[in-house]
Amino acid sequence: MGLHPGGAAFSISIGDETYRYRFDRIGALPAACGTEDRSGPEAIFETAVAIFTEHYPFFRERDVAWSETVEFLSSQVSPDLSEEGLFALLSRLLSQIDDGHIGLSAMVEGRERWFSPPFKLRQVSPEAIERSEQVGYWTTGIASELSDNLVRVSNGQIQYGTIEDTAYLYIGSTGRSLRRAVNGPLDEARALFRREGSKRLIIDLTDNTGGTDETARRFVARFARSPVVAYSKRAGDTVNDPLQAAWIEPADPPIFEGPVTVITNQETISAGEILLMGLRSLPNIDHIGMATRGSLSDILTKRLPNGWSLDLANEIYLDHEGRFYEGIGIPPDVEIPIYSKQNAPDDAKEAAKRLIDYLDSF
User: Which residues of the chain have pLDDT under 50?
Assistant: First the structure.
């Protein structure tokens, strides 16, 4: 913890030494923190609105008419509104925000409840569909049909193998499974790639559910050959918070030093997107597939007066070139449709082979 001169503020790192949170001293507690009873439905709704109004920075990016929504829903709050009714009303409030990092956690009439807005899938562009007819497309999980030496680690969250002269590495989570694999299983993957003489590596981040920034950086460090800025970030609810750069130092031995292609889909989210930003800062990386979810920010949790809690995105991330992707996702260099096994066309295996052959033209 660091105390600023005169005690006007202090900063602290929480779980990630590359990023410091700053807290400014205020002259006195807000009036709402006094003895007034704030446990009624009207006060709880007002508090939820105030939290998002003050701390959520992405209404414009998410195309949310926040003021109009609040005005409409506030007319439906009454002092005798039930817990079930209040939960439903707050869920309607949050449902206007298409963000994978917001949610409501509550104990409603003795039962634990959770709400998070459903993700609205984007349409694949006609250009990408037309391109796939020529160069192929990718299907999640298709590597198991293409590789005869695929190794699965951590219940399949980490997978590696070879597909002819192409190395393949699947990362389904940027959390504990990857943290454990950065040294050990990934060294075994490296040995396999070298033994098979792989000329190119595919890193498959489709359906990556996220995890931690620190784990993402540790993974990218196994590919970096010189220090790089992976991304920068700052708090989104203040204009005075400076950007803090996240540097990555190379970690030996490198997993792969040849050309690398990263594949993503719309389910690549959170720290999976941070991992992607780090990889894209390296010179030997190409990116194909579909734009990611666009939910990069860490989660800020705020408690409501009745003990319920709200989660919201609160931080602004920029890539190594200063580009901002919250709400729109990180676009690939080449857009290719990504299908699930359930909705893939009948020629999924042959299409994947064509796509791998297409990568040689990069």
Answer: none
- CB environment 282-312: b (16+ within 10 A), e (fewer): beebbbbbbbbbbbbbbbbebebbbebebbb
- Which of 171, 168, 172 lies closest to 149, judged by CA? 168
pLDDT tens-digit readout, 25-51: 888 877 766 667 778 999 999 999 999
Q: State the amino acid at position 159 in one-letter form.
A: Q
- Dig out the tokens for 27 from the structure: 């002259």
Q: Report the C-alpha gap between 232 and 213 in whole angstroms.
A: 11
Contacts of 29 (CB under 8 A, 6+ apart): none
What is the per-residue pLDDT across 56-66, written as a single tens digit (0 to 9) for each? 999 999 999 99
* 8 A C-beta contact, residue 254 and residue 225: yes
pLDDT of residue 1: 54
Task: Check the CA dihedral 274-280-283-284 and report its sign.
Answer: positive
φ, ψ of residue 39 to 5 degrees: the values are -95, -5
Instruction: Say if residue 109 is exposed, middle or buried (CB neighbours under 10 Å; 0-12, 13-18, 19+).
Output: exposed
Residue type, 64: V
Residue 4 pLDDT: 64
- In the numeric block, the tokens 């923190």 are attached to 33
Decide: 24 and 8 in contact? Cβ < 8 Å. yes
CA 206 – CA 202 distance, rounded (Å): 11
Measured distance CA(64)–CA(139) in Å, rounded: 33
Check: CB of residue 220 under 8 Å from CB of residue 279: yes
Name the token pair of 196.
């098979």
Which residue is it, tokens 């609205």? 120
Phi, psi of 319 (to 5 degrees): -75, -175
Distance (Å, rounded) from C-alpha 170 to C-alpha 201? 11
Q: How far apart are CA 56 and CA 302, in angstroms?
A: 12
Reported as a single tens digit per residue, the pLDDT across 266-277 is 999 999 999 999
Which residues partner with 264 through β-bridges? 289
Alpha carbon distances (Å) from 339 to 15, 100, 158: 36, 20, 20
- Assess contact for 160 and 168: CB atoms under 8 A: yes
Check whether the bond before 253 is cis (ω within 30° of 0): yes
What is the per-residue pLDDT for 132?
A: 95
The pLDDT, as a whole number, for residue 24 is: 77
